[in-house]
Amino acid sequence: MKSNNIKIQDGGKTIHTVLNLLFLAIGITGGITVYLYLYIGISLIEDEAWFKVLVVLFPICIVLSLNFATVYTFEINFKKKKFRNGKRLGPFNLTRWLNLPEGKYISVFRQGYRDDDSDGDSVTTHVYDINLWYDAPHCLTITQHHNRMKALEMGTTIAGRMGIGLLDATIPNDHKWLIEMPAEVTTS
Which of the ends of the chain has fewer CB neighbours closer than 10 A, N or C? Predict the structure, then answer.
């Protein structure tokens, strides 16, 4: 049986997990130490300089830990025809469900960004946007991918589940339909 949802999640990479645990451990240790000292009167650290360092490190480590624990998600619930697009902090989703527009087609579009490298030279980086087009000039960007084939695979999955067309616009001036749009959409 097919699931009623598609969930795309970016983040949660190994380095993020390690850094998150490190900052969280320092932050919690600092928080417990500050709490014990200020509210209970127990001093775990005799040197006042170290206590001041923990007081400063505690909020910084908590903020950094929350930053590394936050991941970008895009979810579609086909049964309820809803979507949510935003950030997730652990099990808590920080966005609300919105109505999913009636899609006409999915496009996978190559986007170029100019950036300067360490030598000051201009370098173009390409990402592939996966967009849901629902009204003539309006689209909803579902996600971006750096790998062309994975972006096309993701677009194919979403278009197939929604029963709409898929436009491959990954090569400039060579757009082609990988999944044809239904006839009622092309004539309107």
Answer: N
